[in-house]
Amino acid sequence: MRIHCLLLLAFCLLSCPITPGASLTGLGHRADHYQCVKNGGFCLYSACPTYSRIVGTCYNGKAKCCT
């Protein structure tokens, strides 16, 4: 019985994605902070500096993407 529990635990850990949304990257979906950095921006929880502007969001809408 103990072996079955260990095998089930190992299977569950191996089949679960490491990060939320990791299974979606194969479908072409990317996290918003990845898209921000890829387009030359940076993520800030506070307001963007005066020389930059807001172009989107990061971390599921919790931060701003500034360029």
TrEMBL record:
Residues 32-66 form the Beta-defensin-like domain. Gene3D superfamilies: Antimicrobial Peptide, Beta-defensin 2, Chain A. The keyword Cell cycle does not apply. Keywords: Antibiotic, Antimicrobial, Defensin, Disulfide bond, Secreted, Signal. It is found in: Secreted. Monomer. Homodimer. Has bactericidal activity. May act as a ligand for C-C chemokine receptor CCR6. Positively regulates the sperm motility and bactericidal activity in a CCR6-dependent manner. Binds to CCR6 and triggers Ca2+ mobilization in the sperm which is important for its motility. This is Beta-defensin 1. It comes from Octodon degus. The lineage of its organism: Eukaryota, Metazoa, Chordata, Craniata, Vertebrata.
